Fold this sequence. Notes:
Blueprint: H1 8-15, H2 23-40, H3 45-52, H4 56-69, H5 91-103, H6 109-118, H7 125-137, E1 177-187, E2 190-199, E3 205-210, H8 215-228, E4 235-238, H9 247-254, E5 258-261, H10 271-285, H11 294-310, H12 322-329
Parallel strand pairs: 1-4, 4-5
Antiparallel strand pairs: 1-2, 2-3
Helix pairs in contact: 2-3, 5-6, 5-7, 6-7, 8-9
Amino acid sequence: MRQIYLQKEFYQLIKKPPVQPSENAKQRMRLLRAWETLQAQGMDAEEASQIVEVSRATLYRWRKRLREEGWKGLECRNRRPKHLRKHSWSEELIEGVRSLRKLYPCWGKEKIKVLLEEEGLLASVSTVGWVITDLKRRHQIPSVHYRKRWKPKKRVQRPYAVRKPKDYEVEKPGDIIQVDTLDIHPFPAIHFKHFTGRDVISRWDVVEVFRKASSRQAKDFLFNLIRRVPFPVKAIQVDGGSEFMAEFEQACEGLQIRLFVLPPRSPKLNGRVERAHRTHLDEFYAVHEPNGDLEDLNRELRKWEWVYNNIRPHRALDNLSPRKYIERYYPDLISSHLSHMY
């Protein structure tokens, strides 16, 4: 007797459960059946497609796929184009973005675009962003891994606090400079106090690190701040920290600089310098590896301070650096020694 067997694939196939259509495929089937029912009742295909709110071409396509492939033809398909457009970036632009990103690894596409324009390379912000993404994918530029080097500061309540008078107007650089401190922990047993002073108009920053934050160190920072800003300082605004009492207050009084102290638990009123801390953490401490030497860290900070005030574009300043912003809008305030400060 002759025996006929089917191929082994058939036996493997019948062991598998039937493929269940998705909810999306079932919904398409319902719309297709409704459209066909309306046509059977004598309605025009175009009118029926308007009632089911699906274009006629789409309904014809669904019906064709259903006949040829069954339920599988009603499933969603990949809509990725078969032919993708290739980028047309010049090698000069790619090399410019690569070199700037390696030099300033924490700066994004908007700041790099401004620097490229200064070098004569014109490109949109989105184009620069695509170039950066492509360079990252090909591992042509390093990825920045942020390292947390600070701890939350415990605020000490002061028995008194005087807010800035309501009638005090801030119109030009130097009218108010916000000053605050930040804890830096380069190693478990070593910590520094980072002082930042930021002008609220021009975003000009002065930064320095000390072993501790006492009123004497705050006074020294005040003198350095006055020497390193290109405009006269009229008022200082600080929080309720003890480092801004005693010698610091006496120094402000002796220099005839008004001192505004914030109420307790109100860091939002010192928002400019709080944002400055974030910038210096993300763009300096994230990529600089301190070796525990205070003088070496301050030398590196002075270099970063120069880059920050003279090169780094600021979105709040219409993509100008603080120095260019002052030169454009407040040229009369610039002191004659600005070019020799560093």
